Each structure stands twice: as structure tokens, then as C-alpha cells.
Amino acid sequence: MTGSIVRPYGDTTGDGMVQLSFTLPVPHDKRAEGAALQLARKMGLEPALLVHAKAMGPDFTFFVVYGSVTHLVDLDEVQVIEREYPLLSAKDANTAIRKLLRRKLVVVGACIGTDAHTVGIDAILNIKGFAGEKGLEYYREIKVVNLGAQVLVPDLVARARAEKADAVLVSQVVTQKDAHIHNTTQMSAAFREAYPAGQVPILVVGGPRFEEGSAATLGVDRIFGRGTTPGEVASYLVHEIATRKGRS
Amino acid sequence: MTSPARLELDPEVVRKARALARRAAAPVVSIAKRHTTVSVERATLRLAGLSGADHERVPWVNHLVTAVREQVGLEHGVTTPVYDALLRGEAADLATLAQMASSGNVSFRLPTGREEKAAQRAATRGVSLGLKRIDAARRTRERLVNRLGDPRQKPWIYLIVATGDIYEDIPQAQAAAREGADVIAVIRSTGQSLLDYVPEGATREGFAGTYATQENFRLMRAALDDVSKELGRYVRLTNYASGLCMPEIATLAGMERLDMMLNDSMYGILFRDINPIRTFVDQRFSRQIHARAGIIINTGEDNYLTTADAVEAAHTVTVSQLLNERFAKEAGLEDWQLGLGHAFEINPDVPDSFRLELAHAMLARQLFPKAPLKWMPPTKHMTGDVFRGYLLDGFFNLVGAMTGQGILLVGMMTEAVVTPFLSDRDLALQNVRYVMNAASGLTEDFHPPRDGFIQTRARQVLGEAVDLLERIVHDSDPAGDPPLLAAIADGTFGLMKRPATAGKGLDGVVERAPGYHNPAIAELDAWAPDRAQRHTAAAAKGARR
């Protein structure tokens, strides 16, 4: 294998092997199995091996397919947003905040809209933290105000103003019909209305369903996805505050 | 349900735990008896037969309660001024009265003397129709269970549907029943717990769930009756009596013959920031209705473990179960109606996590031997690795099988990824069936040694639970609130601080006046489960036959 072209790895370099499971809305018979193989071929599995087919009720069949994909992956063409700031330890983040602000950094967090699932915001804010990292409450130089679930946007704005928040963290875990997008744009618009230009707190949203790179469209400064740790969020906030300080 | 004693718990400690729970609950029950809420009053009107909504979908019960509250207040109960208005000929019936009241065309008054008595008698007659309807639904359930039978195995298999559209939910629920589900839960739209009204009619738009409405209840129950007949076993239906409309939803569920309701004593306070007094008042009414309706409640202890560490917080589950049991018994629920919750949420990377889970599950089983415990699957440590998640669910099922749980909520390997695919549900049920088939007999063989890891851990958790209950009953705050409310206010539970003077729905709480009259509460307070027990006993005899 030379350079930037790779294929999936089953048990031999370059074999291209993948596994796949899916359901077709057809009764289980020979035709159904043929249909599954046809789908696999159209997905680029050649040859495809149908290893399991099982009827699920009278109208559906479940399949497991193994096969070699014909597609190649060109690593040079892969585009990702790399973290543009250094990852700081809690200690370094505290020191940086002290130096930058000479006071505590105030973070207000909430789940907005109808979402009642605080797992995301709690993982970032609660001392307990996430993935072995302590949450922002653990940082000596960060004051955390966690408003919990189903917070109304006007309440969030009012509380952010009352607390003189430097940053507002909003979590959207469970969403349907793009509710997370509507809620976020509504939130960012409310902040822009309530604050003079250039003084809006750092607006951060987190959740598994946000698209990386859509921050500008949503009117927020940063999006965090699945698996984000408190340390990443703290490091980002320090970085963003430093950038804003440099600007003014 | 019988379950052989396997843990050697000190009966003195168990007695003490229950005594402390009783002591913590008593002053809160007395607060509940001294207040009413807008939702309790609306539920009372629903029992009297008022239903429907205006063209903006605001229910008539909301209009009528608001109008009465504005004119004469609710501290005497809504029904006395309402039935007085009917007796005075302001309108021919409740629906007309509500419509007129919504446009400000009725003047209410607080009748006195003979007129007050007449209004209260009329209200009692009106409300008794709703209670009779609930009694009839209970008898119908008993008849159907008698004829069709209960699930052949324990635990009962509990599956969730959640499409947002009742007409999509119905075929999914029927398919789930055909695949082996004994209990179908229709998840509610996420916003509903904070709505201060019950939506009306069949609904097709919900967020991550379907609205609980009377019509949705009726449609789903009818669909499950059909599939119950087809399958030859009674398939149960579950919904949620939580949030701001607990009393009304409980009432609608009782009338439409739902079989189980999620109903936790403190969940709304801690996790939804609903005012504590509102919650306890609403909860007592809803549980009295559940008791009368023969509905099994499911409590929400799993939530403590998803927000805190499942090992460190294990005793908070026990404390919550004891409080839930106490509040439930006070409201007239019987042991067989207590689906006390607990969950498999210990981090799988913790050494001996499975042994710890077994210890906790056995402790719950032994503390509440006659309750159909509800065993909840892993969610917090489901990572998106569906293969590992499937294994975790297998171990969860094994604990359920080995410890004789009553209701098993089927875990999905797609937890935290997507709403389950058809195939995910099928695979999850295969997982359950395999484990039940292979290992449910283990309840007979599995007796952990007295001083082994499991028994020691169970006793430790019980000890910690007693310590926490001690702290709760000795808690206090400057306002002189009952200790349990003080404990809720200072963050004893799940680190969430919920003072009795804050939270959603507080403006719907009203202190009762000395002349408060609510015919539903009067009848529910006087009702004893004995009368219903006759039916249940008859049903049980029939089932044995």
C-alpha cells in the first residue's frame, strides 16, 4: 500500500472487507436474499457474502453481509476541522484564566427547548465530569451556573446577564425534526438582541446531532460533538477569551 | 409473586428503614392534604365528564378552572361553585358552562347553607360517574386477564414505542406484541411534562415521543385489545403520569384502562424542576386514582443512577424506593401495584461490576418481596459500540433472570445512537429470550454465601440507605419546612437543590380553605382496596383454573 490510498482491513492488508447489516421490507425467501445481494453490490461490495438472513415477522427480513468494497479511500482528500487551540490541563487553564481575566470565568449552562436530557451538559459541567476528566465545576477559576433542563431562552439570557457570563453552554441531546437547530438559532438570536454588538458571551452548543462546521449558520461560536471532554471545552474557552482580548 | 429469601438482612434494620421512610413522608402527606392544585381540580372536572377543547385546543377544563379561580378562588374546590352555577340554571351542562365561562358570561359564587349542600351533592353525583367508569375499566381488565391470561414468564417484557405519531405507534406496538412484548410503553413527547394542560384528540406530531391524550390512550388500548385476543395473552399498556398534569393524566388513564403508569414521588421535582408542593399534591391524587383503577405504577429510580455514579449512589435508589413505597401505600396502592424501579448502570470498567449489580438487584428484590420490581437497562454506558452494548444488555438480562425481577425494560444496543430500528428490537428480544430460556431457573440455584461479596455489599447499601434516611428526617431549613422538603431543597438527592418556594407550576398550588370540598378526593379517601380485592381474588382464582 503506497501513500495515501487505503482500503478497509479485514484480516489482510488491502482485502477491503466490511460487514453490514440491514433490513428489507420483503418476506424472507430466495428473492429476498437475492435482493440483499443486489443492494450490497450497488453499495460497492464485490464479492458480497450473505452470511445471515432471518425473517422478522411476515413482511421483513434482516440480513448480515460481509464483502470486499471496491471503493478506495484517499487520505489526502479527507477534510476535518482540526482543533485550533492547545489542550490545557485544569491547572494550566486556571493559570491562564487568572492571567487573562484576573477574576473567575463565568459559565452558564443549560438544556433548552423541550430537551430534558442533561447528560451532555452535566458531563461537561458537573464535578463528576466525563471520560475520567473532572467537569468545569472542578476548575478553581471557573464559576459554573448549571440551569438544568428545559430552560426557556429568555430565562437563559436573563440569567447570563445577571451572572455576567463570559460563556454560555447549551446542550441539545434528544432532538427530532431539527428541533436542535431551531432552538439554537433562536437562542443565538436572543443573545444578539439582548447584548450590544461585540459583547455577546461566547456561545457554545453541544450535542450528537450538530454538524461540524455549521457554527456560523447557527450563530454560535463553537459546536462540540459526541465524546467531547470537559478539558476540551475549558481549553477552547481559554483560547477564545485570549483571542477576544487580543482583538479589543 | 414469591421469592425465596436469599440475602440475610437484619430484620431490625429493614424495619428501621421503613419506619424512617414513614416518618419522612408523614409531614409531606399532611401538606398534600392541606393544598389543592389547578390540575387536581381539572382532573375532578374530567371525572365529572368534562372533556374537549376550544378551537385553539385549550381544554374546557382549563377554561372552567381559570374562570372559577379568577372569580371566587379555588380554595373551596372548583366543583362547588361550578355545580352551584348549574343548579342556578346558568347552563344546561358542564360543557356549555365551560364555553360560557371562557367568554366571561357566567358569574360564579360560593353558595352557603342549603345551596352549598345541594351543589356539593350534585358535584358528588357528577364525579361518581367518572369513578364508576374507572371501576368498570378495572373490571374489564380483570375479565380480559382472566380470559386471555397473563404472560407465561416473569419478568414481563416491557418495550417502548416512540414515533410521535399515534397512527405509526399502533402498528409498531402490535408488531412488538407479536414479537413477544408483554407491556407496551408509549413514550411521551419530551415537552409534555411541562405543559399545564392535556392536549386533546389523536395526535401525529410529537418530539421523540407521542403526546399523552385521552384519544391516543383509547386508540392504543383498543389496538392492543385486538392483538391480545390474537395472541391469547393480555398485552398491557403504559404511559406517564408525571409532570404538571399528573392528576389529569392518571384520571384519563384510569378511564381508558391503561395498565401501568410511570409515577415517581420525586422525579418531577428533581429532574424537571417542578415545585415540590405541586408535585406531592398532584402525586397523591394521581396515586389514589391509580390505586382505584388497579394500575401498576413504575417509579423512576433509574434516573438517580444516570446522573450520579451507580456505585456511590446505590443507596439513594433504596431510599427512593422506600419513600415511593410509603407514599404509594398511603395513597391506597397495594404491593402488587408497586413497580419500584432500579437500573443496571454501573460502569462496566469497574471491577466486579456484575457482582455489584447482582447485589443491588437482590437487595431490591428482598426488601420488596411482593412488588413487581421494574428492572431498567443500561443507558449511561452505552457508547455507540453496538456490539459491546449487545453484550452489556445480555448481562443486564441475566441479572433480571437470576433475581426474579417483575418487569424488564428491554435494552436496545442502539441506546444513545438512534431510535431503534425494527431489527434492533428483534435482536434485543432474541437476547432476552435466550437469557430467560437459558438461565431463568438460576433463581433456584443461586444463593450467594452469607459473608461473600454480594451479601456484604447488599447489607452495606442498606446501611447507607438507613443513614441517608436518618439525615433526611433530621434535616431542617430556616422556613421550618418538613425535613424531607428541607432535604430536597439543600441538594440531598442527586445534588439538585429544589426549594419548596420555587419551581415550575408553583402558581397552580392553592391552600385549601376550611370549607374545601372535592367529591373525588372525599370518595378516594374513603375508598379501601378491599372492595377491589374481591375482584382481584376472583380473577386470580379464574387464572388458576
What topology emerges from the helices and strands here?
The complex is a heterodimer of chains A (248) and B (545).
Chain A: E1 5-6, E2 17-24, H1 30-42, E3 45-56, E4 60-69, E5 73-74, H2 90-101, E6 105-111, H3 119-125, E7 142-146, H4 153-162, E8 167-171, H5 179-194, E9 202-206, H6 215-218, E10 222-224, H7 230-247
Parallel strand pairs in A: 6-7, 6-8, 8-9, 9-10
Antiparallel strand pairs in A: 1-5, 2-4, 3-4
Chain B: H1 11-34, E1 35-37, H2 38-47, H3 60-72, H4 79-87, H5 94-102, H6 113-148, E2 156-161, H7 166-178, E3 183-186, H8 214-231, E4 236-240, H9 246-255, E5 260-262, H10 267-272, H11 276-293, E6 296-298, H12 302-307, H13 314-330, E7 338-339, E8 341-343, H14 353-367, E9 374-376, H15 386-402, E10 407-409, H16 422-439, H17 442-445, H18 453-473, H19 483-489, E11 509-511, H20 519-526, H21 529-544
Parallel strand pairs in B: 2-3, 2-10, 3-4, 4-5, 5-6, 6-7, 8-9, 9-10
Antiparallel strand pairs in B: 1-11
Helix pairs in contact in B: 1-11, 1-13, 1-18, 2-3, 2-6, 2-9, 3-5, 4-6, 6-21, 7-8, 9-11, 13-18, 14-15, 14-18, 15-16
Domain B12-binding (chain A): 104-248
Organism (chain A): Intrasporangium calvum
Protein name (chain A): Cobalamin-dependent protein
